[in-house]
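ARCHIVE CARD
Drawer: 12
Card no.: 0347
Subject: one protein chain, sequence and derived structure
Cross-reference: see card 0346
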Amino acid sequence: MKILIIDNDEALRYMLTEFCKHAEWDSETAVNGRDGVDKFLSGSFDVILVDYHMPEMDGLQTVREIRKLNQTIPILVLTVDERQEIADRFLEEGATDFALKPVKAPDLISRIRLHVQIANMKHVQEEDEDVFTAKGISKGTLHSVAEFLKNHRDPHSVDVISKKIGLAYPTVYRYLMHLLEEGKVKQVVSHQKIGRPKKLYKWYTH
């Protein structure tokens, strides 16, 4: 497996390269988004790790450019920014998932493995590709969220679903909102003894 690491921070590039060595993967690095797109065009990669804040071409522009070239390769965004609106913008451009800095090796390695597995899944039912592309929705990721809910009938919070299937909170939230719009998921409000009511989600069975 080969990973393309796009980050302007030399120390982080080195650390991510070491993570890849530990997992017995090959890796190549790029110092900014422009360099990353050039390397992507000239090489063959299975997963892309891209930093958000970079000079010359930031993470958003980089994801946008790579998605024009390839619709399916998993793109994981590395960021310190936890704001939902940033996550939404990345997902709209076609990012697959997020890893919050400081990045931990076990989390990143398991996340990369999960997304490669999703990308390789052949049995996901065919849907209208234009709808998925327009909404920045990956069929494989949608399948993972849907399967978890189908197999666990009790309502779950976004946080719990996120931890159980190994996807970032903003990713799970966005896919749940998509399933909610489609009428496939039901939102349940759980009133806590202390604090605000909690929103839980379950698969909608007619």
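Annotation on reverse: The first strand starts at residue 2 and ends at 6. Residues 129-203 form a domain with the Arc Repressor Mutant, subunit A fold (CATH 1.10.10.10).
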